[in-house]
Write a structure and sequence with these properties.
27 strands; globular; 468 residues; Cathepsin D, subunit A, domain 1; alpha+beta; four-stranded antiparallel sheet; protease
């Protein structure tokens, strides 16, 4: 038998090598500007903190009991929607219409105030006229389409069985004229409802066609929309097929400074020469799937395995059934950009607070400030910043050995010229909020950390970093 020619051998060799080599670099990054919380209307910093505490508890109630109506909704103080959260500007439609939306890793739908008939009740905030809120106008977009019941994306919100519930949309039916049902979503600080559209998402150097968005027509305490970064199919990361996204949250700052940082979206996989995890300085811990699976309302949350909490190097004894998810899906820890102050279920919070109180017994407690602010413990620190630097360190220890050592400003707040500080972690004093995650890691405790949500490898990475 004749031997292959040299050129043929070279071809075989090249093909063999190509099957062994990883694909070429196809990674693309998109950088967006992430704005810090809006300037609050009150001049008393402790009143602002107290409001944020109330809002954080209301948010925790929703995340822990997503199907339960929040009866205390109308009792929450009214503040601008973005106060306490971080916002990003996105363009929708052809030509694009730009709106500022709240970044939320605890929910998935991307929705915008929509049409000239948008109505928002309890939205008469300082500097916000509820009759003059920026809205998306579908009629001005040549690519906007109302979503029909037959569209698979309708099932992202309502489940695959929705087609059988729609008139003329039974399985196998070729005639479907009914639109996807109206949605209604409740958040800790408000609610919204509307219809689903598909339109073009406009990003720097990239556009995403047939992007699912919620066209909200009625809202309560929600003067601006939300961009969901949760784990649901309707979220921005899922619709764009992101491999990862990352952000670095600038300080809340409780003053008049206003700076922004970057929200980085990464599509495609990056193969070949790149920086190692050590070069990036990131510590990683794996995401944990909720044990109730895809039928659970908790499936869109970013769960992580928090192994232990230490205060001043002392291991805080937290009940195991709260620290780790049980077979009923309750317990465990989630990371949520939409919650301001970290929430801990009563038994977890009490264990942490008691350890701080034990190690800080030589400081003078401020009971009046505790009653005024809703935080505990609070201390007089007449010695100034030098004394504050001696406070015990709070560290979250995650599976895989990752340690999140919080800067003091992330868990004790010294506001303005006040010589008093309070621990900025909240709980439900009445003990009525049960079920769901036991710990919700809020954005206040994420300040000046670079966080990477590595969706491709199912893990969370973080490092301390001064955010610009």
């Amino acid at each position: 038998m004749a031997s292959p020619s040299p050129s043929l051998l070279s071809l075989f060799t090249l093909l063999s090598l190509l099957t062994l080599l990883p694909p070429s670099t196809t990674q693309t990054t998109i950088t967006l500007s992430l704005s810090p919380p809006a300037k609050p209307p009150h001049t008393n910093p402790w009143k602002r903190l107290s409001h944020l505490a109330s809002s954080s508890i209301a948010r925790a109630s929703h995340l822990k009991q997503p199907h339960k109506k929040n009866s205390s909704l109308t009792e929450i103080p009214l503040f601008p929607h973005a106060y306490g959260g971080y916002s990003v500007s996105l363009g929708f439609g052809t030509p694009p219409q730009t709106l500022s939306l709240l970044l939320d890793t605890g929910s998935s739908l991307v929705w915008v105030p929509c049409t000239t008939h948008y109505a928002c009740t309890k939205c008469d905030f300082p500097n916000i006229n509820p009759t003059n809120i920026s809205t998306f106008i579908p009629k001005r977009s040549s690519s906007a389409k109302i979503l029909g019941c037959k569209n698979p994306k309708c099932g992202w919100l309502f489940g695959p069985g929705i087609r059988s519930q729609c008139e003329d949309c039974a399985e196998g039916s070729g005639n479907c004229t009914r639109i996807c049902p109206a949605y209604g979503i409740q958040y800790g600080s408000g609610s919204t409802s509307g219809i689903l559209l598909s339109d073009t998402l406009d990003l720097p150097e990239k556009s995403v066609e047939d992007f699912l968005i919620g066209c909200s027509i009625f809202s309560t305490q929600q003067p601006s929309g939300i961009v969901g970064f949760g784990r649901g199919l309707e979220s921005l990361p899922a619709q764009m097929g992101l491999k990862k996204f990352s952000y670095c949250l600038v300080s809340h700052r409780f003053d008049e400074e206003s700076e922004s940082s970057d929200l980085i979206l990464t599509t495609g996989s990056h193969y070949g020469v790149t920086k190692t995890e050590e070069d990036l300085g990131l510590s990683y811990t794996p995401f944990v799937k909720n044990k109730l699976g895809n039928d659970s309302a908790f499936e869109e949350y970013y769960y992580v395995n928090l192994r232990k909490i230490t205060v001043g190097g002392k291991h805080v004894r937290v009940p195991y059934d709260l620290l780790v998810q049980g077979s009923d899906g309750h317990g465990g820890t989630i990371v949520d950009s939409g919650t301001t102050f970290t929430f801990m279920e009563g038994k977890v919070y009490e264990a942490v607070a008691r350890e701080f109180e034990r190690q800080m017994a030589h400081y003078s407690r401020d009971a009046g400030l505790e009653n005024q602010s809703g935080f505990r413990p609070c201390y007089n620190v007449s010695g100034g910043e030098e004394v504050v630097l001696l406070f015990p360190e709070l560290v979250f220890h995650f599976k895989g050995g990752a340690k999140m050592k919080l800067p003091l400003a992330d868990y004790f707040s010294l506001v303005g010229e006040s010589m008093a500080v309070c621990m900025t972690i909240v709980t439900d004093m009445g003990g009525d909020i049960v079920g769901g995650p036991s710990i919700i890691l809020g954005n206040f405790q994420q300040q000046d950390f670079y966080l990477e949500y590595d969706l491709e490898n199912e893990r969370l990475g973080f490092r301390k970093q001064t955010c610009k």
